[in-house]
Amino acid sequence: MRVGIAGIGGRVGRLLVEEVRAAGMELSGGTTRKVQEGGAAYPLFTDLAELAALSDVVIDFTHADTVCDNARILAQAGVAWVLGTTGLSPAQMGAVDEAARRIGVVHAANFSPGVTLVQRLAQMMGQALPAESYDAEIVEMHHRQKVDAPSGTALAIGRAVALGRGVALEDVRESGRDGHTGPRQTGAIGFAALRGGQIVGEHEVLFTSADEQITLTHRAFDRRIFATGAVRAAGWLSGRAPGLYGMEDVLGLPPL
């Protein structure tokens, strides 16, 4: 399998290079904003279409602003897509859906197997624990350079809780409480975002009633876990029919 990496010079991109090679796959190259002559041990491109022409799958951890163009290019090239970009608008998500009609796409807010299982458990708990009795709160902490809040992973966990409860997250989400906010709304899913140091990622999901509290916690110690999971997803896509898949599919979890 020939694997290309969009944004190969980023922090995750550099780890992806190592993980692709460790998995015995062929690294077809990567995209970067500016190609410098010499020094690279793999082909570099500024145009994703050039990389796609040499690849069977492209792993993409770039930016939401590139998603629409990347979706069009990879769909036209017939190249599978592993997408780890979060914070997508409805229009950008629509471009992903459209591409998935022509190619296999694995899209995940987080490629860690542990986070995937936390999302599954959060959905099960949302389904089993009545919203009228159990308040759901999600706390996340990341490094000080992170620009979006709550994190894409926290929102994915929140959507899992909302799915279990049969509601849309947008209808029950509460974020960034400050000042005299009044009492907590029944059925709300709350978010708190902390930033500091160089923390890779910590997520905690709490279900609290008047009588008990259940907590799910996940801590990432190394960004390599995201690269390892993305490469696993790339291998899983080999020979798959067009469609939009998630890490639950890659891990072989049965549908709820």
UniProtKB/TrEMBL annotation:
All residue ranges annotated as the Dihydrodipicolinate reductase N-terminal domain in the record: 1-111
Subcellular location: Cytoplasm
Residue sites binding (S)-2,3,4,5-tetrahydrodipicolinate per the record: 143, 152-153
GO terms under cellular component: cytoplasm
Principal cellular location given in the protein's record: cytoplasm
Family matches, as InterPro entries: DapB_C (IPR022663), DapB_N (IPR000846), DapB_N_CS (IPR022664), DHDPR_bac (IPR023940), NAD(P)-bd_dom_sf (IPR036291)
Transmembrane segments: none
An MF annotation (GO) of this entry: NADP binding
Catalytic activity, as annotated: (S)-2,3,4,5-tetrahydrodipicolinate + NADP(+) + H2O = (2S,4S)-4-hydroxy-2,3,4,5-tetrahydrodipicolinate + NADPH + H(+); (S)-2,3,4,5-tetrahydrodipicolinate + NAD(+) + H2O = (2S,4S)-4-hydroxy-2,3,4,5-tetrahydrodipicolinate + NADH + H(+)
Any single biological process term in GO: diaminopimelate biosynthetic process
Residues in Dihydrodipicolinate reductase C-terminal domain copies: 114-251
Root EC class: oxidoreductase
Pathway where it operates: Amino-acid biosynthesis; L-lysine biosynthesis via DAP pathway; (S)-tetrahydrodipicolinate from L-aspartate: step 4/4
UniProt-annotated catalytic positions: 142, 146
Residues annotated for NAD(+) binding in this entry: 7-12, 84-86, 108-111
EC numbers: 1.17.1.8
Keywords noted in UniProt: Amino-acid biosynthesis, Cytoplasm, Diaminopimelate biosynthesis, Lysine biosynthesis, NAD, NADP, Oxidoreductase
Function: Catalyzes the conversion of 4-hydroxy-tetrahydrodipicolinate (HTPA) to tetrahydrodipicolinate.
Known partners and oligomeric status: Homotetramer.
Record family assignment: Belongs to the DapB family.
Name of protein: 4-hydroxy-tetrahydrodipicolinate reductase
